[in-house]
Amino acid sequence: MHGEPTRVSGDRDIHTWAAAFQCDECRVLSIGTASLVRTLNPREAATQMREYGQYIEWLPTKAVGQHFADVPDHIAEAASEAHRCHSIGAHRAAVLMARSVLEATAKERGILKGNLIEKIDKLHEEQHIRPLVRDSAHEIRHLGNDMAHGDFVAPVAEEEAAEILELMGELLNEVYQAPAKLRAAQAARLARTGADASNN
């Protein structure tokens, strides 16, 4: 811990304190806040924050992305960004990024004309996605359109954003990851077949 904790808010019984902490590994500073019961001075707060570290809320919150193998880099990076947004509670941004991933996927498949409804339907018509995944893509579109057009009076719940990200994952799996796994399995089988033939 660097310096004394500072009391930032509180009532008679519960006080919120903030202090700078340095990581033992990377030496980078982070701000930790903690609500402590009947802690009236910085020395007591420092002691309690060290002893009850699991109750500290860290700033900045660490964003956590996700790796998308076999997905084009620009789309995989946007999909990972959607997960990072969700991990820090930016649920509207997560949904909007999922919608952008959906549109980028259609464009990458050569579907450039029409609105997003038409692009999703075209993905299905060209057999890039099954009917179930088409319907999932439309669910991403519905909520994503609200974010894109500024219709976000009601907050997006964590569960809603998580569901949209799951649907986004199904889309990427359908278009990119499952076909890549199939191609890898086929290549491995052909390599084994070729090896067996050369040994006979």
Topology overview:
Blueprint: E1 2-10, E2 14-22, E3 29-37, H1 42-51, E4 57-59, H2 73-87, H3 91-108, H4 116-125, H5 131-148, H6 158-199
Antiparallel strand pairs: 1-2, 2-3, 3-4
Domain DUF4145: 80-168
Pfam families: DUF4145 (PF13643)
The total tally of domains equals: 2
How is the biggest beta sheet arranged? 4 strands, antiparallel
Tell the overall outline: flat
Number of strands: 4
String of helices and strands = EEEHEHHHHH
CATH top level label of the largest domain: Mainly Alpha
Strand order of the largest sheet: 1-2-3-4
- Beta-strand percent range: 15-25%
Separation, N- and C-terminal Cα atoms: 70 Å
Q: What kind of oligomer do you see?
A: single chain
Q: How large is the radius of gyration?
A: 24 Å
For the residues shown, what is the average pLDDT?
A: 83
Q: How much helical structure, as a percent, in the residues? A: 55-70%
